Amino acid sequence: MTEENVKAVLTVAASTADVFAVLADPATHAAIDGTGWVQDAADRAPLAGVGQIFHMDMYHPNHPDGMYRVGNKVHVFDPPHAIGWFTGEIQADGSLEFGGWFWRYDLVPVGPSTSEVTLTYDWTAVPAHIREYLHFPPFGPEHLPNSLRHLAGVAAPASGATAAVGDHG
Predict the structure, then answer these.
(1) Would the CA dihedral through 37, 53, 95, 101 be positive or negative?
(2) What is the pLDDT of residue 166?
């Protein structure tokens, strides 16, 4: 793979404001996750701006501890158009070390209650020493489309999502 990001797009039967509200609520992230790794929000305050840190409890069978916690730092916050965060590892002293990858959602209104959502996972800034032991992306090709379908189900549970799932990137 020569690209250092993957993307998926889905048209969701919900307004950009409704979709953004779901994304800005860490308590919904376990329901949105397409891998099952996100277990629960350790911090439940809604995301409110660039620089905010929020923690998530995670599980991965290949992680040395199985259960672990990550810290995320919001780096894009433009309601209701875009939101994104870097994911970091919590160090022994409580500080966060970011590995250079991030998640980003871009929302474009298609109608008053319909939105096009683009989910991007980018690892362009991951340094060589991390690439020596982590493969990117660390999930299969179904993860991003699954995440967007889950997001659609949370943002618009009665109507769900329409077609247009696909990897782009």
Answers:
(1) positive
(2) 42
Contact by Cβ (8 Å): 49, 71: no
Instruction: Output the pLDDT for position 46.
Output: 95
3-state SS, residue 44: coil
Q: Where are the beta strands (DSSP E) in the chain?
A: 5-12, 38-41, 53-59, 67-78, 82-90, 96-111, 114-122, 166-168
CB contact at 8 A, 13 and 152: yes
Q: Rounded distance, CA 96 to CA 88, Å?
A: 6
Find the length of the chain: 169
Positions in the chain short of pLDDT 50: 1, 158-169
- pTM for the model stands at 0.89
Token readout for 99 is: 């590995």
